[in-house]
Each structure stands twice: as C-alpha cells, then as structure tokens.
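Section 3.1: Structural characterization of target chains.
Under the original work plan, the team committed to producing a structural model for every single-chain target entering the pipeline before any wet-lab resources were allocated. The record below documents one such target. The sequence was received from the expression subgroup and is listed exactly as submitted; it comprises 275 residues.
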Amino acid sequence: MKKLSLAIVLLSLIFILLVSYRYSSMTEEVIIESFENRVENNQIEEAVEITETENTKPDVIEKEQKSKKIICIDPGHQQKGDYTTEPIGPNSDKEKPKVSNGAIGISTNKPEYELTLEVSLKLKDRLEEKGFVVVLTRKSHDVNISNSERAKIANMNDSDIFIRIHADQREPSEFNGISVLCPSEENKYTSKIYDDSDKLANLLLESLIAETDATNQGISYRDDISGFNWSEVPVALVELGFMSNPLEDEKMNTDVYQNKLVDGMLKGILEYFNH
C-alpha cells in the first residue's frame, strides 16, 4: 500500500513538472512570435531609429540666435510615408494623410525625399553664408514627421519665413517647369499670413525662373495643405520641377542645376527681406 501511494505521488510530481514546462514553452513561443512580428513590421527598428538617431531631431534655435532672421526649410516627404490622418487645420473636421514618401524620378529612380533634402542642405549652407539662422524640419530620411508637425517646428522657432521644398509629377510626361504653392486669400487658417506668403511665393518664382530659364508654371493658391494651414509664419512651397519628365528629372539630379535652383531661391529670399 505504501509503495502504491509513493508511486502515485511520484507520478503526480512528474505530471506537474510536464505541465509547467509546456506552459513555459508556450509563453516563450508567444513572446518570440510577438517580437518577430514587430520586427517584421519594422515597429521595433523604427522606434530605435527615430528615438536614438541624432539626425532625426528637428533643429531648435538658441535664444541668442533669435536676433537674426530665422528661416525654416522643410525638405518634403520622408523615407516611409505615414498614411494615418490628421486635421488639415486647427479644429478642422477634414483630415488627410500625415505625410507621404513622395514621387520617384522616372529616369534617375531617385526618391523625391532624397532630392528635396539634397537641395535643402545646399540652400541652408548658402543662407548661413549670408548670416541667416536656418532651421531644418528634418536632416535625414528615417523620420516620421507629419506636415502639421513640420509647420509647428517653424512656429516653435519663431521663424520669419517657412520654405517648403518639393518636386512634382504629372501625366503626360511632357509637363515640365517650376511652380510655387501658396495659401489662398480665402483660406480661413492663414488670413494673417496671406499677404506675406503671397509676396514670398511670387518673389521665389520670379527669381527661380530667371535663374534656371525653366517653364513658368505659375502660383497655385491652396486651402487644403496641412503644412500651410498649421503655419503661423509666412509660407510657400516650391515645386522644383517634374520628376515625371525624363529630361527634367535628370537635370534636377545634377549639381549644376541644383545650384541654379538654390541661387534662385536665395535671391528670392533676399529680395523678400529687402522689400
């Protein structure tokens, strides 16, 4: 009888140990699977990049620099679009995607987000040579900064103007040239900055066309652009050219033409502050 009881106890202990081991293994499998799914979906990698990469932090102006003219430059788009939505303006019921990754060059296969940062960095250098303080909304591609947040960076730094740099695409591929976008006069979000934004847009376009001899695609006045509607400082968006046009796409990828674009924007900005 004692032997039987001892056997039952031993069997019970073995059963308990087996159940505990299986539960532990299942829990570990769930944890590993969850981790692998997050890595596969780039959730962990992106979090590390965005929080730990110094270049992902937007510029912030020191107090002693605020005695100079401050220009905020927004290199349009980013490596991975964020297609969750945000209001197009303060207290708006209308929403649109936060930010996209932009166009792709038809000939060069270069992403728009690379082109815009290249040109923005060159413009930054030229402006600093002239004594301006320059804020960049981004300094690398691996960021996630919505269009409203980019406008808020300009606001936060008490920028005198906000220049947004983009490139265009359109079918048919024959379309070419430079345009500048600006808040419209009827835009309820930007009524206080309309006059200065309009002046800035016109001066930028005039000097860009003079410097590059590109086709003048004119000024486009808009109400639906989050990066305008959240801005509290004069703002304009430059479309450098059409990445859907093979010749213009190749041209925008050269230092010679990029320098002409930068010279044109620089002259327009200087003219704005000289008026």
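Residues 75 and 116 are 5 Å apart (CA to CA).
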